[in-house]
Design brief:
mainly alpha; Hypothetical protein af1432; Methane Monooxygenase Hydroxylase, Chain G, domain 1; 2 domains; 12 helices; about 60% helix; about 0% strand
Length: about 230
């Protein structure tokens, strides 16, 4: 990695040191590498914007994790924090604006939609890292950290109404401790392939979701002694 990106990596590492372990610097670097993988299939793309956006996309994650109200959106706050960081490092205005657009639109539970190729790549890469074997490991890490139940038998619609903002399946989680890995799979993970943009990302996502579906079905059977 070039020195200028190493500087951003260090800034991010310090900023997210108190974030959940599922959103640590390892996650950031996996998204960074996935972005570069997806970018190789695009005919014309601003690689610098992709690299910067990937490194900074979760810069405000610790602040969202600390807010039990569900009112802090790390994507929106992260775009603001990225603006300040990149201005301090003397990046051009055009690059700063584009990076902010990418970060603001990168989350699944979002208000803004990715509109540029670079923003779509960041969105797809970030979503790929929450599914598959890595996705299972991450959601179990979060479950342990926030005291979630391993499995919840609560009806999906009831869970959505009680714990997702505006009672929508793509609404942000209000209280993480009231979520459960299987609920997260039903309300978010299994719908991810339909939200992705590139054919390559969709292909990878379907493979990963199939793996997750088998896992959660097996988990259900073991818990219910079927």
């Amino acid at each position: 990695m070039e020195k200028r990106y190493q500087v951003l990596q260090k800034i991010v590492g310090k900023a997210i040191q108190d974030a959940s372990s599922a959103h640590d610097i390892d996650h950031v670097m996996r998204v960074y590498n996935l972005c570069l993988c997806l970018a190789r299939d695009e005919p014309s793309v601003d690689v610098e914007v992709i690299k910067i956006s990937a490194l900074l996309h979760d810069i405000a994650r610790a602040q969202e994790d600390d807010d039990d109200s569900g009112n802090t959106d790390h994507a929106i706050l992260g775009a603001e924090m990225a603006d300040e960081i990149l201005r301090t490092l003397k990046y051009p205005e055009r690059t700063i604006d584009h990076v902010k657009q990418c970060i603001a639109a990168h989350r699944y539970r979002r208000e803004k939609q990715p509109s540029t190729t670079e923003a779509k790549i960041l969105f797809d890469a970030d979503k790929l890292d929450v599914i598959g074997a890595i996705g299972i490991a991450r959601c179990l890490m979060i479950a342990g950290q926030y005291g979630e139940r391993l499995y919840s038998s609560v009806l999906i619609d009831e869970s959505v109404q009680a714990n997702l903002v505006d009672g929508k399946r793509n609404g942000r989680i209000k209280i993480i401790s009231q979520q459960a890995p299987n609920i997260e799979f039903e309300t978010k993970f299994k719908h991810i392939p339909d939200t992705l943009h590139s054919a390559k990302a969709k292909h990878l996502a379907h493979q990963r979701i199939e793996y997750m579906a088998h896992f959660f079905e097996r988990l259900r059977k073991e818990i219910e002694l079927l």
